[in-house]
Amino acid sequence: MVLYHGSNVVVERPKLICQTRTLDFGAGFYTTTNKEQAINFAGKVMTRTKTNTQFVSRYKFDIEKAEKELNILKFDSPNEEWLEFVFQNRQGIYIGKKYDAVYGPVANDDVYQTFALYEAKVLSKEQTLDALKIKKLYDQITFTSEQSLFFLNYTGYINTLEV
What we know:
With 163 residues, this protein is α+β, with helices and mostly antiparallel strands. 36% of the residues lie in helices and 23% in strands. It has helices spanning 35-49, 63-69, 80-91, 109-119, 125-133, 146-149, and strands at residues 2-7, 29-31, 55-61, 72-74, 101-105, 139-143, 152-159. The strands form 2 sheets. A 4-stranded mixed sheet has the order 2-6-5-4. Strands 1-3-7 form a 3-stranded antiparallel sheet. α4 packs antiparallel against α5 (125-133). The radius of gyration is 16 Å and the shape is globular.
């Protein structure tokens, strides 16, 4: 499987860094199988960091081998368990089981408003899940342990400003 990571720098050797924001799957190194999603995120990082660079680093990931050796939480769809997991992580209140990696839908800009309405308790869990079913959701794989990062093999990068 090919994974992409969007940033304002090339990341040959991924590492876990302390996050200042609460994210969907908690602290970790975020990747996606969708190159356009990574390009979009690289643009956001460039804007947020006020730099003039944006890159997408590319990796090979043997998910079958990783699933045998790591503790991976996998969400096949934006179901109730996914919604609660993302909600708790975004609120900074997740205290459940720790995983080496988490794989599932990303609550990207297209679904952010729906998710914000759920967080504000305007939408119920059922209304939120119904609304998410009609959205096109990309995926993300978040590596949350040092051990999991060994399964990522850097294969190059794209300077998205030159594309």
